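Sequence and fold
=================
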Amino acid sequence: MEQAKSADISADKEFAAILNDFSVFNDYDELWKMFHLVINTGSWGTSEFGGPVWLMDFSLANLKKLYPESPWIPVMENEWSKGKLFGGTAESKLLRDFSEWFEYRARHLINQLGLGNVIIKQETSFDGNISLYGWGIFLDVVQSLVGGKVKRTHEQLMLKNNFSYAEAEAVSHGIFLTCLKSDGMVRRFPCFHGSGIHYVKHSDTYGDCYRLNHFSLTDGYVIPETVPEKFLMLIVNDLMECKAQGHGNRADKYGYTVPYPAMKFEKYLDCNRGYEQHFHPTADVFRWKRRNGSFEEIKVELPQIDAKYGKFWHRAFPPKQNWREL
């Protein structure tokens, strides 16, 4: 009994030392186990909301569900409970770094494999806990509806890293895989974000309800949604169906049209690799070199789409929850 107790104390001290020296860039076996579980148990259409979006959920609630015995979970729950600021986000450096640990690797996985229509959900972050990945020019349309910021490389950084004219044009016009961050994203949708006329109908139960300000098969007043990953999935589905029906094909003043989103893209942008070519072919297997020289590898199998859907693959993943109509 004493030996077991002594071993527990030793383990607690070792874990405390790990937490004290925690870094987003270090490798931790337990966290890698959780990372693999999240990636290997999800895909497009598998979340509670369904739809043509892959939700990579690294929230504490989901990590606890997948790996309840992990010693990291109660520690991070305690960090979360220390205080809630800025709309309910726990202000804890350790929790934020823990959350960023997963986001950092998931972001590299998405880019290396060229995956489109992916949401990363993390527990907390300086710039919001939701990121939607896809073709930049498509994300520009989503951003016009919900706010937030589509990530692009700064012009000065492109000059410093010797981007070619074609590469700079691709980045400027959103012809590359990037993400929409949620730092400025609205807390509910629909809302009065963006231009256009909004028709409002008040409900004593749900407050102000709206007609959607974009193409949608839903016709009528809808109840505001407060879960970002849900309304993002519904908007993405609506916009993809819009393209499938031939709407929105008029080119802008630069000659660009918003493309139908792909599940996997052929190239990704890496600003830090080389001075001659910044767009690189995407991979089929995600490989991450750990500091001890070993590799973490994850192969993502793309879902097989029935031929009856043709190129409009979103129709194979209908939403499990639709807009709530008044």
